[in-house]
Request: fold
Amino acid sequence: MVYIPEFAESIASPIVFVFHGHGGTMRHVMASRRLERLWLEAIIVYPQGLNTPGKLTDKDGQRPGWHKGPGDMNDRDLHFFDVMLKSFRTDFKINNRRVYATGHSNGGGFTYLLWATRGDQFAAFAPSAAVAGRIVSLLKPKPAIHIMREQDPLVKPQWQKLMCKQIMRINDWATLYPSKTGNPFVLYSHPGDHTYPSMADEVVVNFFKTINKP
Reply:
């Protein structure tokens, strides 16, 4: 499901990919996040995952999600992303300095996977309730905002805080202010459980608006 700005065929537009969590759907994430209300000038893409074995739940893969690492499921979802981005570049004018990805839980893990394997295509990332795990060594300095809830029972807050410390080292200690490598990093921590904090959307969009790929 996609939101297309009125002048996307003639004006170079930013593009944001929004990945649902494991067991989620494109319809639900579009209805709940509605990033287009916050950024009318951007193309907003809500892809649909296929049934995928989960890492923490649904080990039999009865519900939709995204694959976990390079080579997993023959890189099915990375190829899907490549085709999507190529298609949008063919059909619309895309500002190639303004390509972004955000996702929650398993979708956040896939956002980290895109960072690790397709990072040169993106200006910035905003994963939530997720960690990069074994692919953290593949991450290169990049602007990012990580969203977490302090009582998350599934993706433990201590795991996520460690993930954030690793990003800070990768970006050479970045904060909301410019880092030594020019790659700011923001940790948005909010009380609550594993559900996505809806108030974070404005923070994510405002962060993306400030970031252009060099």
User: Anything to note?
Assistant: The first strand starts at residue 2 and ends at 3.
